[in-house]
Amino acid sequence: MTDTTDLLVIGAGPGGYACAFRAADLGLSVTLVDARDRLGGVCLNEGCIPSKALLHAAEIIREAQHMADWGITFGKPKLDLDALRAKKDEIVGHLTGGLTGLAGRRKVTTLQGKATLTGPNSAEIEGTQIRFDKAVIAVGSAPVQLPGWPEDDRIWDSTSALELRDVPKTLAIVGGGIIGLEMATVYCALGAEVTVVELADQIAPGADPQAVAILRDAQEAEGITIHTGTQVTEVTTTKATVTLTCTGAFEGQIKAKAVIQSVGRRANGDKVGAEAAGLSVSDRGVIEADATGATDVPSIFAIGDVTGNPMLAHRATHQGHIAAEVIAGHRAALETTLIPSVAYTSPELAWVGLTEAQAKAEGRNVKATSFPWAASGRNLASGGRDGLTKLVYDPATNRLLGASIVGRNAGELLAEVTLAIEMGARLDDIGLTIHAHPTLSETIAFAAERALGTLTDL
Amino acid sequence: MSDTIASPSTRRLAREQGVDIDALARKLGRTTISAEDISGSARPAASAGDTSYWDVDHSQYGPVTKEPMSRFAQVASKNLAAAQALIPAVTHHERADVSAIEALRKSWKAEAQARGVKLTALAFHVAALSRALRAFPRFNASLTPDGEDLVLKDYVHIGIAVDTPHGLMVPVIRDADRKGLWQIGAEIADLAGRAQARKVRQDEMGGASMTITNLGGIGGTAFTPIVNPPEVAILGITRTETVTHWDGDTPRPVPMVPLDLSYDHRVINGADAARFMTHYAGLIADPRNMLV
Ligand SMILES: Cc1cc2nc3c(=O)[nH]c(=O)nc-3n(C[C@H](O)[C@H](O)[C@H](O)COP(=O)(O)OP(=O)(O)OC[C@H]3O[C@@H](n4cnc5c(N)ncnc54)[C@H](O)[C@@H]3O)c2cc1C
Predict the structure, then answer these.
(1) Residues A246, A199: Cα–Cα separation, whole Å
(2) Share of chain A above pLDDT 70, in %
(3) Using CA atoms, how far apart are residues A208 and A205, in angstroms rounded to an integer?
(4) Is the dihedral angle over the CA atoms A8, A10, A15, A17 positive or is it negative?
(5) Which stretches of chain B score pLDDT less than 70?
(6) How far apart are CA B267 and CA B264, in angstroms?
(7) CB atoms within 10 A of CB A21
(8) What is the reported pLDDT for A186?
(9) Rounded Cα gap, residues B228 and A303, in angstroms
């Protein structure tokens, strides 16, 4: 039996379902297939959402501890891991179930099974042939497994870490990018003694060093040990521990009850039969796509993590919408290069657009201005600790080009600057826009005013 | 990041309309592009001003049918509207005695038959105009679009507006000032014939010094043709009429052809136009003047 569809979307993550739903809204007949039994992909099932649920729990534990300074003391928190896991799963279930409802309302056909392309207009899903006019590959990415590591139940990736099997007394995290730092934040609050090992000479590589330094200080103050510029050369296991041998800035051994590998994610392009359709896949699993999602094969588009970095859910979603519109005959393309990054650590670290280092690498003349959160009334009055709002701008025009924010709710604050950059705002526009007092958002206006010489709060 | 400032919705609009936002910014000499700039750049030059009141449901007044304008007609209408809106044009009226031309055509009838060439009055006009353009070089010129330079041409090509079932076409007789009447006559017949069948090649159109639009075979006493840019003038001809000419006290019937010269006032002023047409009428009235 052969089924036919206008559009086959392979992978139901934030890229795939957004694409399928938009295409259905534009009148196409759409089939959405995923190997897992729930929609939502990595993001909903083992990424963005479960990690944020656990981070919320971690934040409450930390806040409760810090309230001792305010004369309010709670007892040591009692952890019911089963209940916490159930709560997290309930949230995930609620959201993925919601997606199933949204798919049904749009008459998107959903199939469960592994899809393999068999040609430029055909695929096979668990023995069933399906013919399509167009297909969108949205198969996402998977955690990188470092070569030479032993097989061991105590060596986790982000997926197993989010399963919350237990809270090990000591936990080593290899890879200090966003995912590793979020895991450190969770497990530290739950009571593990956490050590982070990062090869680059700063955690959150790519982010503004001044902002990252504030995050690092905060994490170390919570008891997390951080080794940057350090490489793990050997991993050995005994009955009692996993031992990491390190060289670089830190020379020596780290013994831990469990280890999380978070050294990046590899695109899944080589797991979908892309070659049979005439596509080439890079040795990093990436399928190249242009700003419309088009690949080298006219009937096939690719979006999301499978198209490479930055591997972020909101990028996948926007690419999905664009591809759907292009397939439905509209003129569309991802016009912007502004893709915000947020680490939901404590405090949060968020950045978008140009950093000073990037500008320097591009030979572009920029200036930076900042406002320290130690001078923010709202931050102090709500128990916030150190933080920074930093804006990068063009000194010739005062046009805003980038921003880095570290502090509580930095991820939410980032939206204002992202919109401001998209709209071509100058520092003057931001300074002249009235920000409510006292809010954390004021720090953005203050940073702008500081550069303009109109600031009276510092 | 692009140096052009434009909001995301403006960028989307530009893409939908096929407008290159950075090129538009350079053209307008701007750093910021707004949605209005995009719709403006895609709008044809024709619809300047508010035309919403033209949008009438005619069927409420009686039965109507609708026929689509061809691509060809749509392009022509855009160009005509732009020419009419952007060129300050004046039309100068003149008439010329065609007795001598008519006499010549009669006396050459036998030879015409032998050559197989129909020697029309239009052939004489093409010959006369090409000679007149040599005498008045500013009429054989084009203004650059920015209005900063006048390009003077050291060649004389005459465009002939031909009425065809699919619209107006303007094939061109090259180097008409170096061609004799028989050759001009033969070329007119050939080009006009092929224009009817839409068989004129692209390289046989364009590049004219001036265009002649001749309604003489149909009728009319005068009209005001629209200049065909980048040319700076156009010569209209209507039907020859026998008028009463007074030699002192004696009336004499004289066949006169009405001539209408529309010209771009930015390049040609009224006195020049009057001199040009006096000269031209002289060439028609006494074709021997074309030889000197
Ligand atoms: C722990 C963690 C936290 C994260 N936190 C954030 C965050 O806070 N913010 C953020 O923006 N991003 C976050 N990410 C990244 C985010 O999850 C991804 O960028 C996003 O899920 C990518 O979406 P996608 O649509 O490309 O593919 P995915 O979400 O990876 O979905 C791909 C789907 O394709 C399916 N699939 C694969 N191959 C096949 C096949 N052959 N046939 C059928 N189905 C197939 C898979 O089962 C999967 O469901 C996080 C990731 C992790 C691991």
Answers:
(1) 10
(2) 100
(3) 8
(4) positive
(5) 1, 41-49
(6) 6
(7) 22
(8) 98
(9) 52
Q: What is the pLDDT of residue B48?
A: 52
Q: Which residues of chain B have a CB within 8 Å of the CB of A424?
A: 5-7, 32
Phi-psi region of A424 (alpha: psi -120 to 50; beta: other; left: phi over 0): left
Q: Do A424 and B15 make contact, defined as CB atoms within 8 angstroms?
A: no
Which residue type does A233 have? T
- CB contact (8 A) between residue B6 and residue A333: no
- Which pLDDT value is given to residue A224? 98
Of B1, B6, B15, the CB nearest to A332: B15
- Contact between B15 and A331 using a beta-carbon 8 Å cutoff: yes
**Spans of chain A, pLDDT less than 70:** 1
CA A58 from centroid of its chain's CA atoms: 18
- The alpha helices in A284-406, defined as continuous H runs, are 313-327, 356-361, 377-381
Task: Give the model confidence (pLDDT) of A311-322 as tens digits.
Answer: 999 999 999 999
A175 is known to lie in a ligand binding site: yes
Q: Whole-angstrom Cα distance, residue B119 to residue B129? A: 16
pLDDT value, residue B41: 58
- Contact between chains at A333 and B15 (C-beta distance less than 8 A): yes
Domains of chain A, CATH where assigned: 2-143+266-327 (3.50.50.60), 155-263 (3.50.50.60), 347-452 (3.30.390.30)
Which residues of B fall within a CB distance of 8 Å from A331? 15-16, 18
Question: What is the phi/psi pair of residue B218, to 5°?
Answer: -110, -50
Ligand 1-lining residues (CB < 6 angstroms) = A 10-16, 33-36, 41-43, 47-48, 51, 114-115, 138-141, 158, 179, 268, 271-272, 304-305, 311-314, 316
A397 → chain B, closest CA residue: B31
* Cα dihedral A371/A372/A375/A379 (nearest 10): 110
Residue A1 near residue A128 (C-beta atoms within 8 A) = yes
What local confidence, expressed as pLDDT, does residue B166 receive? 82
Active site residue A437: yes
Query: What's the token pair of residue B39?
Result: 């719709």
pLDDT value at residue B255? 97
Distance from C-alpha of A334 to C-alpha of B162, rounded to nearest angstrom: 50
Pick one of 3.30.559.10, 2.130.10.120, 3.10.150.10, 2.40.30.170 as the CATH number of B71-290: 3.30.559.10
The ipTM estimated for the assembled molecules is 0.84
Domains of chain B by residue range = 8-43, 71-290
